[in-house]
Structure formats: C-alpha cells, structure tokens
C-alpha cells in the first residue's frame, strides 16, 4: 500500500496508526521527503516521533530541507514500526512524504523449509541484455 501525506504550517503532524487487534506485523517505509509548490526558502525540519524499547516517546529529525540547497531527500525505504508520527518541527512547508505500508500476516509466516523444493527447481534467469542505443 502506498502512503503519502503533506505537512504544512496549518497541519504540522500526521500520525500513522494500525489496528492493534489485528494479528499482523506492519512495516512503514519512508521513501522520499520533498518540498512542494509554495514552499519558502527556509529550513523545514521533519521529525519522526515514535517509541523506544522502554515505551518512551522519542523524536528524531530525519530531514532538513531548504528550497535553495536541498529541496528533496531520498530515504531509501527507511523502515519504521507503527504507530509513528511525522512532525514538521521547523519551517512552514509544504513538505510531502511518500512511502509504502506492508502488512505481513503472522499465520502465513512459516519459517519451516519446504521439502519439495530442491535446487533443481530453481528458475534460470535470462541473461542481461545490453541497452539499445
């Protein structure tokens, strides 16, 4: 599932939550943080607010964007565990965050190896062809 949200002077935070009752593992991955139309040339600091191993709230800055020098930051699918809040700690935005949400159902997760899979069953990958010029 794709995720997208925008932080602005009027909407300074966005919280991503999942249903605690469902028996699944959730991973939220942040791909890109970027300034969008209407952003001023000021520092825009985006923080991720979550909980540490002692269940205490912690805030970590993940991006400091400025229109004239760094309007976009690729976070290479920075993985987070929901619930998590994205907060515009400084600046007025608008800052757009994009990423994806993966749900892994625990009842389907089996760590046992299948006996009927052998190395002979592996598919051959086609050779890599040079790009046409």
From TrEMBL:
Gene Ontology process terms (BP): chromatin remodeling
Feature: compositional bias, Acidic residues: 111-125
Main location: nucleus
Occurrences of domain Nucleoplasmin core (ranges): 3-102
Coiled coil location: none
GO MF annotation, one: chromatin binding
Highest taxon of the lineage: Eukaryota
Subcellular location: Nucleus, Nucleolus
Pfam families cross-referenced by the UniProt entry: Nucleoplasmin (PF03066)
Keywords: Acetylation, Chaperone, Methylation, Nucleus, Phosphoprotein
Region named Disordered: 111-133
GO cellular component: cytoplasm; nucleolus; nucleoplasm
Function: Plays a role in the regulation of diverse cellular processes such as ribosome biogenesis, chromatin remodeling or protein chaperoning. Modulates the histone chaperone function and the RNA-binding activity of nucleolar phosphoprotein B23/NPM. Efficiently mediates chromatin remodeling when included in a pentamer containing NPM3 and NPM.
UniProt similarity note: Belongs to the nucleoplasmin family.
Subunit (UniProt): Interacts with NPM (via N-terminus). Forms a pentamer with NPM at a ratio 4:1 (NPM3/NPM). Two pentamers form a decamer.
Protein name in UniProt: Nucleoplasmin-3
Organism of this sequence: Gymnorhina tibicen (Australian magpie)
């Amino acid at each position: 599932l794709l995720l997208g949200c925008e932080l602005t002077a009027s909407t300074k935070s966005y919280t991503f939550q999942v249903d605690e009752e469902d028996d699944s593992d959730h991973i939220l991955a942040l791909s890109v943080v970027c300034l969008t139309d209407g952003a001023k040339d000021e520092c825009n600091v985006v923080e991720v607010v979550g909980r540490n191993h002692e269940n205490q709230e912690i805030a970590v800055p993940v991006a400091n964007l400025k229109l004239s020098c760094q309007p976009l930051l690729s976070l290479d699918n920075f993985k987070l565990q929901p619930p998590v809040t994205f907060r515009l700690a400084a600046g007025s935005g608008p800052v757009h965050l994009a990423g994806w949400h993966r749900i892994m159902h625990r009842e389907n997760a089996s760590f046992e190896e299948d006996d009927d899979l052998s190395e002979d069953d592996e598919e051959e990958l086609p050779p890599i062809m040079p790009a046409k010029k």
